[in-house]
# Entry
Amino acid sequence: MLKTVAVTPFPGQKPGTSGLRKKVAVFRQSHYAECFIQAIFDVLEGAAGQTLVLGGDGRFWNREIVQTTLKMAAANGFGRVIVGRGGILSTPAASHVIRKYGAFGGIILSASHNPGGPDEDFGIKYNIGNGGPAPERITDAIHARTEVIDHYRILDAADLDIDQIGETRLGDMAVQIIDPVADYADLMESLFDFAAIRALIAGGFRLTFDAMHAVTGPYATEILERRLGAPADTVLNGTPLPDFGGHHPDPNMVHAHELFDRMFGPDAPDFGAASDGDGDRNIILGRGIFVTPSDSLAMLAANAHLAPAYATGLAGIARSMPTSAAADRVAEALGLPLYETPTGWKYFGNLLDAGRVTICGEESAGTGSDHVREKDGLWAVLLWLNILAARRESVAEIARAHWERFGRNYYARHDYEGIDGAAADGLIAALRDRLPTLAGTRVGDLVVAAADDFAYQDPVDASLSRHQGIRILFEGGSRIVLRLSGTGTSGATLRVYLERYEPVGGDLGRATPDALVDLIAAADTLAEIRSRTGRDQPDVIT
Ligand code: VG1
Ligand code: CO
# Structure
């Protein structure tokens, strides 16, 4: 039976960098999720009778919202919903399923790297028919709709069994439960030289993958252990848990410290990697070396031709603005266009659709290609393995050779988490006010060459996105970027991105904190970080 439920709008249902993320307690309020989902359906044009893809990272509240979304999709006239069994789909797998089955779009339930559980975070994101995150035009329309919404439609029906593969009906709508892993694993097998990787592993190459009790566990087990023959203990923390075992499923030095300890410890494996809550991030380590995500993007781009899918070369490379310029050097050397976009994967969609770029990346542990329209953690792991299988060198050797050819972009991001919102806004506003006068300012040995508030005009649809981060560029090519996070759920998070380029012939083997010491000091002087936030050091350094 179709029900129409009258509601009053909830304030603050504004999608951030990647969907709407709030505490579970917020999502548990009666009608809260329903209002947001109805707002999504209300702004879609021509969705009647079409297919929707639905799945999430398995965190607490995932199963409940899968049931709600199914009943609302039926009441809103969708013809079919394709659901990952158990309500599970990693973000890149969801992107692939949308594309493969020609769906109208998809709803992904995830708060990605944010912690999960009854007291932690939940999220809802809408992806369009190309498989990628909805562009700003659509997320803005969804937000506008949430502010005036006065009813939602839902089918009054019993919960569906989402744990058996097969097809059922909900009212007039078909519900198809699929294996969440198979399509994605097949796609990976079509891109890479699995025989070469299998031979590498059979020859004694040792690898470890930390799934952090998040969604990639089943994907990594199928691909690395079953299809590529890695030993059964290769995937660590491979069982997805609704609270990720109480940890942040954020692959970095702080939250994946076990992996770091192992890779820097005695008898370390040859290769280590980890992914995040929804499977779209990756970190890459070799024995005794962490490859920063910005460097990983550059190294993958420089070596991608060694994998079958990219053997004929790349169309171009895109990176988010705060990501280091290491990829720019590769693009220049290969004669490829390089695009610099705002933070968030949604800005890569048009470039990928238009065939202008093949590989994209963000400093926040995200890399991907035109095989889907999301960043893709396991894809990056497999491309690295394919390159290692082809070159038969260690990760450290490949990194060193890369720096010797292109120079090295020393890089770090300092995050100040949970700071006062007004203080964070004040810091950015004060800096913005001073932008016109910053050029020429001397801070220690550094001299500001230029400073601006990054704006991006999409070269495909000409849409303009302003206020995407403060850039302070120094003479000699060093850089500081400051912006506020758009994915947090409590207080504000200030991100400070620090970068220093060391050309070929310079000192390429320094410890990153040493190489950046004067930039760290300059960031504090210019942005008054200590006095405005009350913090003398960042919470997380990546
Ligand atoms: C962060 C990262 C950004 C990434 C986004 C979503 O956003 O900085 O690069 O695209 O998370 O990643 P912000 O606004 O907090 O800086 V995920 O893995 O959460 O989907
Ligand atoms: Co993620």
Remarks:
- The chain has a mean pLDDT of 97.
- The chain has 18 helices and 27 strands.
